[in-house]
Amino acid sequence: MPEPLLEVKDLRVQFPTDDGVVKAVDGLSFTMAAGETLGIVGESGSGKSVSFLTVMGLINKKSAIIEGEVLFQGQDLVQMSNDELREIRGPKIAMIFQDPMTSLHPFYKVGDQISEMILAHEDISKKEAFNRSVEMLKRVNIPQPEERAKQFPHEFSGGMRQRAMIAMALSLNPDLLIADEPTTALDVTVQAQILDLIDRLQSEFNTAVALITHDLGVVAEHCDHIQVMYAGKIVEEGTADDIYYRPMMPYTWGLLRSLPRLGHDTDRLTPIAGAPPSLIFLPDGCSFSPRCPYVFDECRVIEPDLLPIDGHHAARCLLSLEDRERIVAQEILATP
Amino acid sequence: MLRYIIRRVLWAILVLLIVVLITYMIFFLLPSGDPAVRLAGKNQTPQLLEQIRQQFGLNHPWYIQYLLFLKHAVLGDQYGWPGLGLSFISKVPLKGIIFSRIAVTAQLAIGAAIVWLLVGISVGILSALRPHTVGDRTAMGLAVLAISMPVFFLGPLALYIFWFKLGWLPGTGYYALGQYGFGTWFSHWILPWVVLAVLYAAFYARLSRSNLMETMSEDYIRTARAKGLTEKRVVLKHGLRAGLTPIVTVFGLDLAALLGGAIITESIFNLPGIGQLTVQAVGGQDLNTIAVITLVAATFVVFANLVVDILYAFLDPRVRFD
Amino acid sequence: MRKRWVTGIAMLACMAVVAAACSSNSSSGSSGGPSGTPQKGGTYRTATQTLSNTSNFDPTGEYYGYAWAIFQNMLIRGLYNYNHVPGDEGNTPQPDLVTDSKVSDDGLTYSFTIRDDVKWGPPLDRTVTTGDIEYAFERINNSNLAAYYGNYYCGVIKGMTCSETTNHPVSGIDVPDDTHITFHLESPTGDFLYRLAMPATYPQPKEVAGCFDSAGGYGSDLVSSGAYMYYGADKLDISGGCKTLKPVAGINPDKGMTIVRNPNFDPSTEDPTMFSNYLDGLQVEINSNVDDIFQKIQNGDLDGSFADTPPPTVEQQYATDPNLQQYIHSDPGDRTWYITMNLLAPPFDDPHVRKAVQWVVDKAALVKGYGGSLHADPATTIDPPSVLPATANYNPYPSDGFAGDVTQAQNEMKQSVYDTNQDGMCDAPECKFVLLANNTSPWTNMNPILQQDLAKIGLTAQLQEVKPDVVNSQTVTVDKLIPMSFGQGWAKDFGSPYGFDFFVFNGTTISCTGSYDQGLLGMTEDQAKECGVEDAYNKAIQFYPDHKLPSIDDQMAKCVQEEGDAQQQCYADMDKVIMEEGMTWVPWSWGKNLIITSPSVTQYVYDQNAGDPAWSHIAVSNTATPENVA
Fold it and tell me: Is B96-315 assigned to CATH 1.20.1250.20?
C-alpha cells in the first residue's frame, strides 16, 4: 500500500478555559490516501473543524494543548514551527471555509487576494501572478474572469465567491484540499454546483479532498470514505454504501432519519432528541448515551471502542451486531 | 459622486446658518442685561449709549442683527472681507485676529494629533497582538488612568513639575516659528501637545486595540493565515487595514472639534488660539466674537464630516455602493 | 528668550534649596533689593489676563485706569498731568505742557501758554502745538469717535455738543498761535483743571489722528509726545498720508503691548518730579492663566503684576511670609463699595429704615469676607479720603470696630411706620424684600453676612444671587425698582468729588434705562412719569414734609463753581446731606489695588490718580531689552 498522504494518530486537542478543559478532539485517528475524498460528518462541537484546523496548524498553540501526531507525507505537522508550516499552507495543503463573504478580505480585489497567495510562495512577477489568478477564476467557471478579478468580494454573488475561494485554494496545486462546510452558507441549487465543481477539479488537479459537513446528504455522492464524528471522536466510518445502507451506530441512524426525503411526508422532521454534550463534562461511558434511544446500562459505564465490522467499516457501539442489523432492517431502512 | 458632494455642501451651509441663528437666539434670550449698558461703563449718558449701540449694531432687533451678521460675513464690511465686525471687548476687528488664532489652534491640534496617533495606535496595536499579557494589561491600565486625568489637572501639574520645579521645559506662551526660531517654538509646544494628547492617546489605544482584536478574529484573517502568508503580512496588510479604518472617522471628527478650540489647554498654556478667545468672549458677553467663533467651529465640524465620509468611501469599498 | 530661561533656571535652582532662604538672600542688600538705588535701564515685564478697553487705546474714547496710567506716565503729554505719586498729592493736577495760565474773574475763560519745545515722536518730526490740543477737542466733539467722557466737556465748553459727525474747529476754543490757547465755558466749572488732566484732551496730531473716523481707530497708531512710544513706531511710514500708514507693531489688544523709549524725546522738557523715566521699556503680555502669571513673577520670568488680583494662595503666601511682605503693595484704589437703597421702594422709602440700615451694617465683617485689609478698608462716607480729604474724619454712624451698632439701629427703626409695634424690629409686610447680589466669589460668602445684619432689625432680605452684570443692569433700570442691591463699586474718574458724586447722586442724570443714580436721589415727578413709576413716586414723597424727594442737585451746581478749599468744603457738606438725609448708599468699604512685584523691582511707586503702578517712577534691576509681545 502506498504511503498515506495524511495520517492522524490519536490526535487530542484540548482548550483550557475558566470553566474547565474543553476536549474538542478526543483521540482521533484516520488516514487519507492521495487523491481520495474523505467526508467528515458531525454536529457543531463534534470536533470536525477543529481537527482539520489543527492539521493546518491554525489552532493557536498558546491557547490549546495538542497531543498526538499528524503525519503529512511523513512529516509530523504538530511538531513543526510556524515558518515550516507556512511553507506547507498553500502549495501542499489548502483550506476553504464556510462563509466566503467573511473569508475574503472586503477591502482588496479578488484577483489580488489570489495573486497574494501565489506570490507568497513563488518568485514570479505580479503580472504573472495576476494572470494565473485570472486563469484560476476561469477554471472555476466564473464568466468574464478578467473583469471579475478586479472586483471586490461584495460584488460577487454567494456562489461565485465560494468558487473564487476554491480557485484561490487550488491555485498552487496542493495535494490536499480541506473544505470546511463549503456549501452551508449557499443556496441549495448552488450547493450542488459547488460540489460538482470540487469533484471535477479534484480529478483535474489530482487533489485529495477532506469535505467537512453536518449534512449527510452532501457527502453521499461525492465521498469515497465517510467519517461520522461525535463529541470529538469518530463514532462510525466506512464507504458511502456502508454508511447509507448498513449504518451500525445509533447516532448515524439518527442522522439518516433526520434527513428530509423526497416523496415522504415532510411535515415534520425527526431530529435527534437531546442536545450535544458539553465537551468539558463529557458523560461517563458512551458519549452518546444520554441521547441514544437504544441505550442500556452498560452504555453509561463502559466507553465503547471503535471496532471494525469489516475491512472498511467500523463503528463505536456496545450493541451487538445482530441487534444493530435487526434495528437497521426493521426501523431505519423501512421507515416511510 | 459629484452630486453627492454638492448635496452635502448645501446641507452643510444650511447647518451653519442654523447654528449661528441659535447662537443669536441664546444670547438674546438669556437674561444677562443689555450689552450696550455693559459696554458704556459708568458715565452713561443716553448719547453715549446711542453711540455705542450704533458702533456695535446693537440698535436693531436680534433677528436683524443676525441677518446683518450674515450679510457682512458674506459681503464684507468696513474692515475687509470676510466682514466679521469688531470684538465687543477688545474693539479689535475680528478679521485680523481670527485667522492668526486659528493658526495657533491648528498648530496645537495637529501637533497633539500626531502625538496621540503615533502613541495611541502603536500601543493599541501592540496590546491587541499580545492580549492579556502583562504588557497589555499595564498599557490598558495606564490608558484608563490617562482618561481619568483631565487637562485642567494634568496641565498645571506638568507645568509645575517640568517648568517650575525642574526647569527642563520653558513655561507657557506661544512663540511663533518665524519670529523666534525652531528651538523656542518647539520647546514651548512640547507640554501643550503632550498634555492634550494624553487623553486622546489613551482613548485611541483602547479603540485601536479593541478594533484590531475584533478584526484579528475575523474569518478573513484565518484565510490569510491559511494561505501561508507571513504573520507580519497578515497583521499589517489584512489586520490593520481593516481594524484601523473606522478610526479614520473618529479621528476626523476629533480633530475638527479641536480646531474649534481646545479651550482648557489654551487657557492653561496661554496659547492665543480660538479656545482662549472663546473663554474671553463668553465671559465678556462679546456677541460678535461668539457668533464668529461658533461659525468657525461649526464650519470645521461640518467640513470634517464631509471629508471623513468621502475618505471612508475610498478606504472601504463596500461603502462606495451607497 | 533663552537668556531669560537660563536666568530662570538659576533662580529655580536657588529656590529648590530653601525657598525662604532664597528670597532673603536676594533682598538683603545686593543690586536686587528694593532698598537699592534705582537705576536707569531694564524692562518691566508683566502680564495680564485681558487688556479690556473701551476704545482700542484711542485716548479720545479710552476710559480704563490702566490705559490712562500708561498714557500719562509714558506716552502722551497734556496741559495738565499728575505727579504719579500716592496720596492726595497724586490726585492733584499739575501743569505739564502749561508754562503760564490765567483764569478770568467770572471763571468763564481759561487761557494757557504752553512750551514750544516738546516734539512728537515717530513718525512725525515737529513740535506739539496748541492746534494739536484743539484737535483733540474736535475729536471729543465727534460722536462717531465715542468719547466716553464727552459729558465733561460737552455743555461745558462753548461749541461742544458731542453730536458732531465730522472734525471741525470748536467755536469755544481759540488758538491764536502755536503756543496759546483759550477756552470759553458756558458756566463756571471749578474743577476744569481736573478735566484738562484727562487723556482725551491731550494733543493729537491731525495728520495721523485724522486718518481715523471711527471709534478707536487712532489707538493703533497713537503718536507719542512723551518719553516713550510704542515699539515699532519708528518703522511707521506716513510719507503717503493715511494710505501708507499701517498699525504700529507694539500694540495689539488681543495679545499685548510693548513700550520703548522715544528717540525724539528731549529730557529737558519734562519735570523730574513728574517723570523719572528709569525704565527702558514696559512689556505687557496677555496670559489667560492667572496662576501662571504669578508663578512667573515668583520665578523671575516677570517683574510684577499688572492688573490681576493675585490668587488667594499666592496672596496668603506673600502676606504671611515676612520675607515676601515687602513685595506685596496695597494702595487705596479710590473706589467705594456700596449697598444701594431705593427711595421709591418700600421699606426703604422710609428714611428711618434707611438710617437704621446705616447703623446696623457690620462693615468689619464684610471687609473680612472681601479679603481683609489688603483688599479694602471700612468706609465711613461716600468719597475715599484721597478724593475728598475734607471728609477723612467724617463718620456719621460710628461703631466699635466698625461692627455696626444694633441699639442705635433699632432705636431708629422704632420710629418707622413699618415697625408697627415699635420694638425696633421691622414687622410690616414691606419688611420682606428682594436683595439683589452677586453670585460670584467672594460675594457669595458675604451676602449672608448682610442678610444677618438686616435681620437684626427685622428686615427679611430674600437673597437673589445673579451675575454681577445683571445686578448692574437691573439696578440701573428705573422701573425695576430694585429695593436693595449689594456688591457694586464705584471708582473716581479724577480726584475731584464731582466726578465721584455726579453720576450717582445727581437727579439730572436719571435716565429710565441707564441711571447710575440707582437710589433715585433727586428724582422729579416728570422723571417718575417718564419712567412709569409715578405711583411709587407719589407714595414715596409722603415721607418728606415738602413732598419732594431729597436732592443735592442745587448744592452740587454751587460746588462746581467753587474752587480750592471752598470747593472741598462745599462737597463735604453735600456728602453730609447724602449720608444723613438722602442715604441711597451704605458705603461699606474703600477698595484697594494689589500689585505684587519681584525682587528685580528696585523702586515701586503708586500712581494715585491712575490707581496703578507709576511707570514714570518705577525702576528695575534687570537689564532686559524690551521685546515686542504685541
Answer: no
